[in-house]
Design goal:
The structure is a homodimer of 291-residue chains. By secondary structure, chain A is an alpha/beta fold. Chain A is built from 9 helices and 13 strands. The longest helix of chain A is centred in the first third of the chain and has 15 residues.
């Protein structure tokens, strides 16, 4: 939930937006103005320009991405799986309507094609207009990119042995993202991957969503021989620490040498690739506990 | 700066405390009640009981530590240096009035004595009363511990070749902690260490205090042959990512095998010991840039 005032900032106007990350915890950003506020078939969409985070995309009141720190999330959801697979050619991105993930994916030389399936066309349109740095691959119709506005769950259900890498760049497991956090979906992901394929999904905060992380880890482990949680520090998200879960049919991130890393990384590098897999004690315990 | 209401919570009272982490960014916690609010010779001191973080110590309006996540800061400021030194016997802690750091330090079997010099006796008294889990070593007058209420800067100035490990567990570089972030202080730290000694200091957020981190890294590098920044994810602090800087005369954290790690760690483990040294690209760039 978010509270904000849809007033264009002016002299003497002190405008703040607050995301209630939990019922008892709020992150507030002073903003210059609300650039967009609307409602799609699926969700409330807003773009605000904040002093600390720059422009921010807000969906159903939840801060999704910001110009200040988006590189962390997008580099980590894209380059960790793409450096784990020795030669990712065909990639599928589910969600990721702001375009940041596909912007990173197309940087890999081995990648020939990226199919992106985003359910909400208005998120794409708004991102193209108000978040030009993030949505650059969408704006420029990158030649590797094939964008479909449609249902990722249905697309996954229909695909078979098609992709080297699948990236599930979804919002929270409430609203349109809900069906992407189910065992049935992971069964379809497994089927949609080639025999040596792997996938990654954003899986929320290890401080505030422990039961979700535990359930997903169990579901994914039941299907994939290799399951790996990894971490990234993202100031915009609850607790500042975010986790991703990888299911892989063959390749283990620890075992693979780092592939050629594209230029211009701001967070990801070979040291981070190793470090992000090394989990603090309390996270290891969440994953192995039986309760 | 913090805004809060000094009312004991009751039915219908919605009480929040907000730390303005920067002028444009606020972290707000819903609280049950304010347990203590007072003023020492050095600073404003408060303890609030929050829903999300449990009891929190607040100094001059800045969230210092919470029962929810204090283990991360205290394990990381204590065990990284103590596992880097092959046999730390004599340890000095500057600051750390809540007692969490010395609670961790005394767990190491090789440590014979811990001198703690805290400038503000009221922080110690308040922590002993309201933060019993954190201040346990202070409350029980742990036999390894020698607590002095006094000026850490003066103590450092007077000490010579005395300590194996020094831990500077200070508050922000504004107010009583200011003199602990200076080149002169690090010269004294160098002098106070044995010929193979090392020290660690908390050095704020890599997202929001980059010029400070850069200056300290330069100052410490000018004195110590080995300087190492390392990271920990701490939800209570700005951006959720916190950095520590180590200056060492002889031992490199990467080179040393992990010493016996005390039982009961919730964050630190051998994997984290390695991972915390691997810095994201933007932090590496802060440290090496000449600007």
């Amino acid at each position: 939930m978010t509270s904000y005032t849809n007033i264009r900032g002016g002299i003497g106007v002190d405008l703040w937006i607050t995301e209630y990350q939990t019922a008892d915890l709020g992150l507030s950003c002073r903003i210059k103005e609300t650039l967009f506020s609307g409602k799609s078939e699926f969700q409330d969409i807003a773009v605000v320009d904040s002093h600390e985070f720059g422009r921010m995309l807000v969906l159903d009141g939840v801060f999704q991405t910001s110009v200040f720190d988006e590189y962390i999330y997008h580099e980590m959801i894209a380059h960790v799986p793409l450096c784990t697979h020795p030669e990712p050619k065909k990639v599928l991105v589910i969600g990721g309507g702001d375009g940041g993930t596909v912007r990173e994916v197309v940087k890999h030389r081995s990648v020939n094609s990226v199919k992106m399936v985003e359910i909400d066309g208005l998120v794409v349109d708004v991102s193209k207009k108000f978040l030009p740095e993030i949505s650059i691959a969408l704006r420029e119709n990158h030649p590797k990119l094939d964008l479909t506005i449609g249902d990722g769950i249905q697309h996954m259900h229909d695909a078979e042995s098609e992709y080297d890498v699948i990236i599930v760049d979804c919002s929270d497991p409430i609203g349109p993202g809900e069906g992407l956090f189910t065992y049935q979906f992971y069964k379809d992901v497994y089927k949609a991957l080639k025999p040596d394929g792997l996938f990654v999904q954003q899986t929320e905060s290890p401080f505030y969503h422990q039961s979700l992380i535990k359930r997903l880890y169990k579901d994914i482990s039941a299907l994939f021989p290799i399951t790996q949680v990894y971490l990234a520090s993202i100031p915009l998200y609850p607790g500042g620490l975010h986790c991703f879960t990888m299911g892989s049919k063959k390749y283990r991130p620890q075992d693979e040498p780092v592939q050629e890393i594209p230029d211009g990384m701001k967070y990801f590098n070979p040291a981070v690739y190793q470090a992000c897999l090394n989990l603090p004690e309390f996270i290891q315990k969440i994953l192995v506990s039986n309760s």
